Amino acid sequence: MNRYHIIVSGMVQGVGFRYFVYYNASSFNLTGWVRNCYDGSVEIEVQGLKEDISAFIKLIKEGNGFASIDNVSFKEIKICDSEKRFRIVG
Questions:
Q1: Which has fewest Cβ within 10 Å: 24, 38, 54, 79?
Q2: What is the mean pLDDT of each run of 10 residues along the chain (90 residues)?
Q3: Among the options 2, 35, 36, 87, which is catalytic?
Q4: Is residue 32 packed enough to be buried (19+ CB in 10 Å), middle (13-18) or exposed (0-12)?
C-alpha cells in the first residue's frame, strides 16, 4: 500500500477535472481526496496499490479532454489507515 501527494497545474479548474480524478480513482479502488487550490492547481492525495496509482497518474497526466495539463508533481507520503473511499473536498 502506498500514498502519494500530487499537484496538477495547468488549466485544470472549471473543466470537470476534479470529477475526472474522482471517477478514475474510484475505478482503481483508490482512496484519498481531490481539491482545487487557490493558485489554480489541483491537489490530490491518493492511496492504494502501487500499480493502480501508477495507472491513475498516467491517466491524470493525459487529462479529461477539457483540461490542459502543464505539470504533474508527486511524492510519496505516509499512509492513512482510516480512509475508506475517495472524495472531492473543498
A1: 38
A2: 97 96 98 98 98 97 95 97 94
A3: 36
A4: buried
